[in-house]
Each structure stands twice: as structure tokens, then as C-alpha cells.
Design goal:
Layout (H helix, E strand, L loop, with lengths): L1 H15 L8 H22 L5 H10 L2 H27 L48 H12 L1 E7 L9 E9 L4 E4 L2 E4 L20 E3 L5 E3 L10 E4 L17 H10 L12 E4 L21 E9 L11 E3 L5 E6 L2 E8 L10 E9 L3 E2 L24 H7 L2
């Protein structure tokens, strides 16, 4: 296994120097990340240690677009398998394979209060006719049963990182191979056109540590999701948050311009629509992953995943909703995004509407350990004392 990682690391470094890779630092880092994800996820889906050289050769011969497409297919294949497991666990017309003996006998049956009941949780739950019938399992029971089928699940508990601000961390319970999709980053997705609706804008991260940004500018706010829930229910991600007023005082012309651009907006009449989501999703906890302490390497990496909205049967297990009424073409100018005036549903050549999400992918084999994610905080701003850069050059390129 050590030789496997050495070969993949060397392969990634070699590919990152290819002339076809972008000269723009930000795009270069994105391409390097996709290349690593191609190697890891392809190994998980197709290979073993004997095929490492072949996978690296595939990466050498594939264009960036082809690698990106293959990563999406590899990740989608895993998520589809996960959704099938969840159906087996929760849908009453599915066989619950590998049923855990630790679950109560009643967990595999539906309540008999009424022939018209829709079991979206425990007894005495308000019935919603729009929510499909599910087995009345708790979040903990779903998580335990998933571990028996998938081989792993997730747990949130006190972090093992030795600093006072570590708080709770994300832990893998079980074993997962390199390239496995470990977690979903849940929550409300804001495209650049709707940045000003993020609670607390423009200082959105002042009171919210659960924000993350994709390379394409989409921001995911996991704060409304919390730790999930005990139901399959309509969810829109709306939370109430106070937005601090601008500090009064003498203003220069540039300050007035900034305030004009950064004035927060209220989304009461816009917002996000209700989507029926499975709040018991055991893997929708990526926002609890901590940054590794100094001298420790991360064991997962971020992977952009564009979920095709045509996959109706899988939608309930994708823990995200989009803010606003669809995507809007935006152009970036320095630190600002401006509408280009052309609406679109999707930028892909397939013209299939997608949900711009993120997942965490294992960069090595994992077993019963804390999940550590490189936060890649910008080195142009003051960073927390606990933050130890994994790679300063990657941080610089990511935020250039």
C-alpha cells in the first residue's frame, strides 16, 4: 500500500507539470485537485494495486475535461450505491439486507394506527401526505444499519486534535478504501448571483464556521442543516439570522462603492423551495470535519459533485437545496461577481440541470479514525492561531 501511494503522489506531481495545465494559479490548483480525484476515485471503482500503473497512464492520456467527467461518473456510481442501501433500509417495500440484530423488532415494521398513515418518524408524528412512507427508524438506527451494509458510517464526537478550539470532530466508524465517498457537505447552496442573501453578508463567516466555497463560486451553508434530524420531511434551509448594520463614520468614495455592492439583501420573497429530504442521512455531516494539526496530513479531500436532477429516485438523499430560482450567468471582476444578463440552467454540454454540491473523498484507506480535511484558508487574510497550513503554495493558488 505504501508503494501505491508513492506512485500516485509521483503521478499527480508529474501530471500537474503538463503544458496543457492552466497557467492561471487558481485554475491550475483546480486541475491538480481533479487529477488527484481521478486517480483516487478510478482506483476505488476499477482497480487494485496491480492496476496502479494503468490508472496513472489513463490520467496521462486523458484531457482535463475527460478526467473531470470521469470523476463525476466515479463519484455518482458510489452515491447511487449508497442511495440503494438507504432505500433498502428505509423503504417498506424493500428488503432490509443484513438487518442489524441490534435494532428492535418493531423497527422493521410500520405503525398500524391507520391504513393511510405515512410513517415519516416515530409515533405521534404529524402526517404529511406529500412525504413518502418510510420505516420508523431513528437516525442512530439508520446509521448503524448503513454501517452493516456499506462498511462504514459517521459519528460526531469530541475531536482528538490537541487544541482548545477543536470542539467536536467527524469520525469514521468502520473501514473505507481510498477513493471512497466519505461524506456529503449538506445545506443551502448560494450561487454568486445570490451572495448578498447569505446571512451576515458581507462578513458571512464571522459567526458561521460552516460555509464552504466551490471553485466555481457556489457557496454551501451547512449551518441550517445542523446534525440532521429524525424525519424525511420538506426542507428549505431557512434560518433566521441577524445582519449587523454597517459601522457609521466618515466614508471615502471607495468605501461607499464597497458598501453599495456589499449591502445585504433579504430573501423573504425569493428564498428556496421545499424539497423532501432524508434528514436521517448518516453521511450528511462533512461540515464537522476538522483541519489537521501541524505535522499531520489530511485523509480526505473536497470533491465537487454535480448531482443530476434527473435522478429523481436519488434526490431525497442529496442533503442540499438551491437558494433562489435557478442559476444565473455571472462574470468575476476582481473580488466581485456581476450578472452577465443571460440566464442558464446548466453550463454542461449535456444541458442537464444539476445541483452544485460537495463530497469528501478518502485519500487513503481509513478505519475507525477522525476525518481530517485541509481547509486551505486564504493566506491573504489573518488566519486562526490553530491553523497550520498543509501546503502554503496550494493555499496561495486556491485563492489567487
Amino acid at each position: 500500500m505504501a508503494l501505491f501511494f508513492k506512485k500516485f503522489t509521483e503521478g499527480a506531481r508529474t501530471l500537474a507539470k503538463r503544458p496543457s495545465f492552466s497557467k492561471d494559479p487558481r485554475q491550475l490548483q483546480f486541475q491538480a485537485d481533479i487529477n488527484r480525484l481521478f486517480l483516487y476515485s478510478s482506483y476505488n471503482r476499477f482497480g487494485d494495486e496491480a492496476n496502479v500503473e494503468h490508472i496513472i497512464e489513463m490520467a496521462n492520456n486523458a484531457s482535463f475535461d475527460d478526467q473531470h467527467m470521469q470523476v463525476q461518473q466515479n463519484v455518482h456510481s458510489q452515491i447511487k450505491a449508497f442511495c440503494n442501501f438507504m432505500d433498502q433500509i428505509l423503504l417498506p417495500n424493500k428488503n432490509m439486507l443484513n438487518h442489524s440484530p441490534e435494532l428492535s423488532p418493531q423497527s422493521n415494521t410500520l405503525p398500524h394506527t391507520s391504513g393511510l398513515s405515512f410513517a415519516v418518524g416515530r409515533s405521534n408524528t404529524t402526517i404529511n401526505p406529500d412525504v413518502p412512507q418510510t420505516r420508523p427508524l431513528s437516525q442512530a438506527e439508520v446509521s448503524l444499519t448503513l454501517k452493516h451494509q456499506l462498511g462504514y458510517t459517521l459519528d460526531v464526537k469530541s475531536s482528538q486534535i490537541p487544541h482548545k478550539d477543536a470542539g467536536r470532530g467527524l469520525f469514521l466508524d468502520g473501514a473505507a478504501d481510498v477513493g471512497s465517498v466519505i461524506a456529503f457537505y449538506p445545506g443551502l447552496i448560494y450561487s454568486p448571483a445570490f451572495y448578498r442573501y447569505i446571512p451576515g453578508y458581507p462578513k458571512v463567516d464571522a459567526q458561521n464556521p460552516y460555509l464552504i466555497t466551490r471553485y466555481d463560486g457556489n457557496v454551501i451553508n451547512a449551518q441550517p442543516w445542523g446534525s440532521g434530524g429524525e424525519l424525511r420531511e420538506p426542507w428549505n434551509g431557512r434560518i433566521k439570522a441577524e445582519i449587523k448594520a454597517n459601522v457609521k463614520g466618515a466614508e471615502k468614495g471607495s468605501e461607499k462603492f464597497w458598501k453599495l455592492l456589499s449591502k445585504p439583501l433579504e430573501g423573504n420573497n425569493l428564498g428556496s423551495k421545499n424539497e423532501i429530504l432524508e434528514r436521517r442521512n448518516p453521511l450528511a455531516l462533512a461540515h464537522f470535519a476538522n483541519h489537521p494539526p501541524k505535522g499531520v496530513q489530511p485523509n480526505v479531500m473536497i470533491c465537487p459533485y454535480d448531482f443530476p436532477l434527473t435522478e429523481d429516485n436519488m434526490r431525497v438523499y442529496i442533503p442540499n437545496v438551491m437558494f433562489g430560482n435557478g442559476e444565473v450567468n455571472m462574470r468575476r471582476f476582481g473580488s466581485f461577481w456581476f450578472k452577465s444578463g443571460v440566464s442558464r440552467r446548466n453550463a454542461s454540454s449535456t444541458n442537464v440541470a444539476t445541483l452544485k454540491t460537495l463530497v469528501l473523498v478518502a485519500t487513503r484507506a481509513l478505519e475507525d479514525e477522525e476525518i481530517l480535511l485541509n481547509y486551505r484558508l486564504s493566506n491573504t487574510k489573518r488566519r486562526p492561531q490553530w491553523y497550520a497550513p498543509v501546503d502554503e503554495e496550494e493555499d496561495r493558488r486556491r485563492w489567487s
